[in-house]
Amino acid sequence: MNQMRMVILVAIACVVCLNLAGCGGGPGPQGKGEKDRPARPAMED
Amino acid sequence: MLSLVVLAAVFHAEPGWNGFRGAGLGAVYLEMKAPTKWSENENVVWKVALPGSGSSSPVVWEEKAYIVCYSGYGVEGAGGKVADLKRHLVALELKTGKEVWQVQVKGVAGEDGYRGYLTEHGYASSTPAVDGNGVYAYLGKSGLHAYDHGGKKLWEADCGQESDPRGWGSAASPIMVGDLVVVNAASESRAILAFDRKTGKQVWKAEGGTLALSFGTPVLAKGLDGVENLLVGAPGEIWALNPKTGKLVWYAPLRGRGNISPSVVAGMVQGESLAFVTGGFESKGTTALRVGGKVEPKGGRQAWEVGASSYVPTPLLHAGRLYWVDEMAALKVLDASTGKVAHEGKLPLKERGGRSRPVYASLVLVGDKLYCQTRREGVFVLSTGEKPEVVGQNRVEDGGDFSATPVPVEGGLLLRSSKMLYRVGEK
After folding, report:
1. What is the pLDDT along chain B (427 residues), one digit of tens a residue?
2. Is B52 in contact with B88 (CB distance < 8 Å)?
3. Helical spans, DSSP H, in B303-388
4. A25:B294 CB<8 A
5. Which of B311, B376, B316, B317 is nearest to B347 (CA)?
6. A41 and B242: CB-CB below 8 Å?
7. Residue B356: how many CA atoms within 13 Å on its side-chain side?
8. What is the rounded CA–CA span in Å between residue B17 and residue B210?
9. How far is A1 from chain B (nearest CA, A)?
10. DSSP letter at B315?
11. Smallest Cα–Cα separation from B55: which of B123, B109, B7, B146?
12. Between residues 335 and 394 of chain B, which touch chain A (CB distance below 8 Å)?
């Protein structure tokens, strides 16, 4: 019973944290992907 | 909204509120006046229903105000079909609020669904930019659109149709830099894009995967060496681009590795040209950096760093102090030369926050008063100085959400809700 209660509490905590983080969205269409791009633009000479 | 800004820009000043946070003026309007009291029945010059929702601010050019809205999908949680999404650019008579012209632009295939943070800010979060040629509206995946002041289309430019990894949608505003209009298209193409103001032709593209969750408006600043930087906040770092070429002049790590880009403000403080970078999630902190050329400035790139930060609202720099009211309504005043927190307070809101945070707009300084727009409890008026005091709380209510930064106009302010636009001022 205690385990079940713990599982429920952890699940609630996860939902709360995700909501606070604003992470309710899902990935949309992406292009060539972050790994296929340079991390930053080219440096000035 | 989530964004970055510069204020330094004494060299970039153009008349009026011509872009996000007044563009180069950094939301500081010392010569203007606005009332400290208004209500539904007092000091409302006009109010008009908007054709759609949105959280961006209007901009002003001569006798007109311009504003972007969206309709057809995701309005106030009403649902609908994403295929019906439309964005509107509306020109209004500043004196009366009467609509002068309006254009509508359909969304594109692959628009992000109405979920996550999009339920907080919607599909019209980018404040337009305006100049003598016309108005430039960044409409996310539908691109950058330019119209003249009569409503005639000048050009449109594709900025990409990708999505950020969270599907939160774009929120940064276009800014004008010399002959260019610059857009942070991190969500749409992981790039900062610069277009010729007159033709819409792309002049440069600064691409980088690090931009994946960059939602801030770039900011222009000039170092003591005369080198201009276009400052871009990316998660965990700040970039200084050459505004003429888009090439990287320098970049610097920021405190922590937040997953959302921070806000940037810049200006002169005690003889130094500094950029102040704050926000990001989950990293907490504000960093002051010396701007300029690639050679590290005297004293090093970083001037100071502290743990205090604002996640959504952008700070305001004035008279050596950095002010902000963060998304949870916490007021902070920092000494801009040292980062020392001079004052901490909290706006007396009834709302306690939670997921739906009570403040998204940024402070604006009009005359000698700070104006803080809350989302659902009106505008707080505060004094300036080391310890600002609340001198007023004024409400107009329409059941909508006020996420846009107030805009100073002659004798008053424009206030934008998700439903209406108001002009307050002494009649």
Report:
1. 443 333 333 333 335 899 999 987 799 999 999 999 999 999 999 999 999 999 999 999 999 999 999 999 999 776 789 999 999 999 999 999 999 999 999 999 999 999 988 998 999 999 999 999 999 999 999 999 999 999 999 999 999 999 998 899 999 999 999 999 999 999 999 999 999 999 999 999 999 999 988 999 999 999 999 999 999 999 889 999 999 999 999 999 887 566 676 788 899 999 999 999 998 777 678 999 999 999 999 899 999 999 999 989 999 999 999 999 999 999 999 999 999 999 999 999 987 655 678 999 999 999 999 999 999 999 999 999 999 999 999 999 999 999 999 999 999 999 999 999 999 998 7
2. yes
3. none
4. no
5. B376
6. no
7. 9
8. 31
9. 30
10. P
11. B123
12. 354-355
Q: Where are the extended beta strands (E) located within B347-387?
A: 364-366, 369-373, 379-383
Chain B contact set for A38 (CB, 8 A): 207-209
Spatial CA neighbour of B311 closest among B174, B111, B171 = B171
Nearest CA in chain A to B160: A31
Which helix (H) or strand (E) segment is A11 a member of? helix A2-20
What the block records as the tokens of B340 is 């020392």
A20/B355 CB distance under 8 A: yes
Beta bridge partners of B334: B322, B341
Quote the pTM value. 0.90
- Cβ neighbour number for residue B220 with a 10 Å cutoff: 26
B26/B22 Cα distance (integer angstroms): 6
Measured CA to CA, the distance from residue A10 to residue B146 in angstroms comes to 50
Q: What is the ipTM of this complex?
A: 0.85
- Give the nearest partner residue to B208 out of A21, A41, A45, using CB atoms: A41
Taking alpha carbons only, the member of B53, B55, B34, B56 closest to residue B45 is: B34
**Are B248 and A42 an interchain contact pair (Cβ–Cβ within 8 Å)?**
yes
Assess contact for B168 and B214: CB atoms under 8 A.
Answer: no
| DSSP tally for chain B: helices H, then strands E | 2, 33
How many CB pairs (< 8 A) connect A and B?
A: 97
To the nearest whole angstrom, how far is the Cα of B277 from the nearest Cα of chain A? 18
